[in-house]
C-alpha cells in the first residue's frame, strides 16, 4: 500500500510543479533572459523589427555580467552585432531603445563613442573585441535579440 501511496503523491505533486523555464530552440540562456545571435545582417532599425517579430527586442545589457556575456558570444562568432542602445533622440545621451532609460553601465571602447551626429546606434564591434562603438544606424550588421525566459518554448526560431 505504501508504494502505491508514494506513487500517487509523486504524480499529484509533480503535476502541480510549474513548467521548467527554457529558451526557444536556437536561443541561448543567460541568467533570466534568452538571446538570439542572428545569422543575417540588417540595419539597426530593421534588426529591431526582426526581433519584435519574435516577440523580443534588441539586447539591452543592464549589468556588467550581461555585457561580458554578450561580448564573449559576439566575439566567438567574430561579428559586429547591434544591441538596443542609441542616442538618436538626444546626442550623447545613450538610452535603451525599448524604454528610453539612460544606460547606467556601458562598455564603450576607448575613444568611443566618436561619431557625433552621424553615428547614433551601438554595436558590439568585432575589431574592438566586442566592446561598444557608435555606428551608423543604416549600416547592415548582425544583431542580438533578447527576451525574458519563458515557460512555453513551443516556437522554433533560428
TrEMBL record:
Keywords: Disulfide bond, Signal
Position of the signal peptide: 1-16
Lineage top rank: taxon: Eukaryota
Keyword Iron-sulfur: no
Entries under Pfam families matching the protein: Lectin_C (PF00059)
InterPro entries assigned to the protein according to its UniProt record, in alphabetical order: C-type_lectin-like, C-type_lectin-like/link_sf, C-type_lectin/snaclec_domain, C-type_lectin_CS, CTDL_fold
Domain C-type lectin residue range list: 30-146
Family matches, as PANTHER family: MANNOSE, PHOSPHOLIPASE, LECTIN RECEPTOR RELATED (PTHR22803)
Name recorded for this polypeptide: C-type lectin domain-containing protein
